[in-house]
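Subject: Sanity check before I submit

Could someone independently write out the structure tokens for this chain? I want to compare against mine line by line before I put it in a report. The sequence has 612 residues.
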Amino acid sequence: MNALGKRTSENPVPGAVHLTPVVHPKAGKPSKFFHLALSILLVVALGMTTTAWANPQSPRWAWGRILVQPRAGLPAADFDRLLRSHGARAIGRIEPIQVHIVEVPPGAEDAMVHALSQDRQVKFAEKDMLVAPEATHANDPQYNNEWHLQKIQAPTAWDTSLGNGIVVAILDTGVDGSHPDLAGKMVPGWNMYDNNSNTSDVHGHGTWVAGVVGAASNNGLGVASVAWNALLMPVRISLPDGSAYWSTMANGVTWAADHGADVANISYNKVSGSATVQSAAQYLRSKGGLVVVAAGNSGVFESISESPALISVSATTSSDQLASFSSYGAYIDLSAPGASIITTARGGGYATVSGTSFSSPTTAGVIALIMAANLALGPSQVEEILFQTADDLGAAGWDQYYGHGRVNAAAAVLTAVQAPAVDAQAPSVTITSPTGGTVAGMVPVDVSASDNMGVIRVSLYANGQFVASDLTEPYQFSLDSTQLPEGPATLTAYAFDAAGNQGTSAAVSIAVDNQPDPPDTLPPTVSITSPTDGSSVKGTVSINLRASDNISVIRLEGYVDGSLKCVTNLDTLTCNWNTRKALAGTHTISAKAKDAAGNIGTTSIQVNVTGK
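---
Independent answer below. Compare away.
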């Protein structure tokens, strides 16, 4: 349906179906008509049978629900009033990143997103999009053709790092932890849908992804993975059919961040386009971790903006060409093998699969190798090593197909070992608005911050007292000036990087004035500029009036002998009086002016009508 509630071909999904420990209970059952938002090409190698996974269809979203992040520091009561003024209400919150799940009239999602996005107290508003792989299954062992490990030079990297102790969260459909190549690799995870610890795979996709990252290797069984000794944290974000909402993904990332994850992988389509997921990714960065996402399998250009919080990965083939199914665009950071990848399958077997769903975990595995090689590296340093050591493909430098290039595990690990362990450079930070002056009520405060290794948090203080922290760019705050004493006040912002370095802004001086204006008791001044008092007139006479006020004039009236002749809401007025219809003799011209407070000023003159 469109914003006015009329049916459209996009068919939004009815029901707000997902359950998280911090948001709200499951509401209703999912529609059976979920689109294919992440297509995966599956090849059953030995039998030469091919199953093609369909391309993404029309976008779908939560019916009667959107995601909204207010400016940091906006009081809850003010946010509630804002939502009520638009006919909406908050029904839950992704706590660490302060993204609110907001109930809106079904069918009004687009209109509400637009309206709330225009409010200066809101950082962003977006629909809660649903993305989903098709629930199909294939299982075919093939152990001697793991070309992707050779292509990224993983065997050389393994001489230095196997990913020991690094925890990689698999945000997906669950993971088959009983698989022979995955048993013993798992750490406790969470089921965001059912709100329990049962993270078994309801679809199969998650087990494929997990095997690419960290299947047990050098054990004489099945397949080898990128990061042999990394630990896997299963976080089920999907509905029973494999679909997942952006809100559940963000909830899963924050849960993983709070439970020790170093890397999070999300192999779903169009995740890079979600401001909510980006905020969650920045939260993991603030704890030293990184989020890797699949570029998507549309096979075409995607108009998604670059995200500094996410690492978006396109897929390459064994000949270092962009895979035909891989999406591309300005948001691509890296490329990695994603065609004909052999991995673990639900139920204990193995499968050969294709898709950016597998270039993403390949990259997540390389990140685990880098982190284990040098535990002192911050997330921005790890990211920079990935980009700098990638094998450049396509046009020289960054391009929209391969990003900075195809990942090279060996070069990345070698660079990580040699990287300086200490970052002593503090972030730079500036309050860009306000820059001074008098303020009252709720004051928007904008801050700019940058760092050589990346800013993880910006905090705002007023008169030395903490106001709020913001984890994501743009750094935007709402300052309730009514909580400050009247008179001079000082604003200061602090920016922090992953190494703990702190940058301090120059102080901004403001004047707080929340006192109500004194009542206006001064009436307007009004004058009749022509004709003059005592003058003789005849024929058609032009009457000119003028008024002024300490605040403003809202009405000016002209009278002849007590009868209203003309009126305006301006402070000047001209009207014509035909004296031919008046008796000869003395007549009174008067003027009346009114201001916004209701004060009235008057004046009058007398003129002598001498003839026709």
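---
OP: Matches mine. For the report I'm noting this point. Residues 428-512 form a domain with the Immunoglobulin-like fold (CATH 2.60.40.10).
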